[in-house]
Amino acid sequence: MSTLWTPEGEHRVPRESASESPPPHPGEAGDGDVEGAFDIDPNTGLPIDPRTGEPFDPEELAEMQAQLREAQEQLVSVPAAEIVQNHMMGLFELAALHLQRDPPDLAEARLPIDALGLLVEHLADQLPAGDTLQGALQQIRLAYVEIHKQQSAAE
């Protein structure tokens, strides 16, 4: 049985076929647990390192769990609005990279532009940099249209 995360929590989703093998289940969010993300060695009960096929060294495993908890703490210490804005600017940059290719790749630029548009439309008023994001969206859309016109004229 798979699970689906929603803002209301995680919900179990039945499989379409009984022959499907179950996917790995990562540990609960925030606990730093890596069990479930790896196969477990039946002799030691330790997760198996996919790089070596051997069980993780318990000290290495404890260090990885500590690093994961530290990374999670760093992530939650940053306001969600900053992280969302950063991801939105990442969409802008991805679109710009595709538009800067030689030749520009309009098909690949379209999805990040559309995704940015949806996010700006629904979230700009909730973000400190909402006006900046609206301006960035207008710029990347204008660049897309100009490049499309150039490509159409050249054909």
Q: Any idea what the shape is?
A: elongated
Q: Rg from C-alpha positions?
A: 22 Å
For the termini, the CA-CA separation is 52 Å
H/E series = EEHHHH
What is the β-strand count? 2
The chain-level structural class is mainly alpha
Q: What attributes does this structure have?
A:
mainly alpha, two-stranded antiparallel sheet, 4 helices, 2 strands, elongated
Describe this structure in words.
The protein has 155 residues and is mainly alpha-helical. It has 4 helices and 2 strands; from the N terminus they run E-E-H-H-H-H. A two-stranded antiparallel sheet has the order 1-2. It is elongated and about 70 Å long. The protein starts with a strand and ends with a helix.
What is this structure's SSE topology?
Layout (H helix, E strand, L loop, with lengths): L1 E5 L2 E5 L44 H19 L3 H21 L5 H18 L6 H25 L1
Antiparallel strand pairs: 1-2
Q: How would you briefly describe this protein structure?
A:
This protein has 155 residues and is mainly alpha-helical. 54% of the residues lie in helices and 6% in strands.
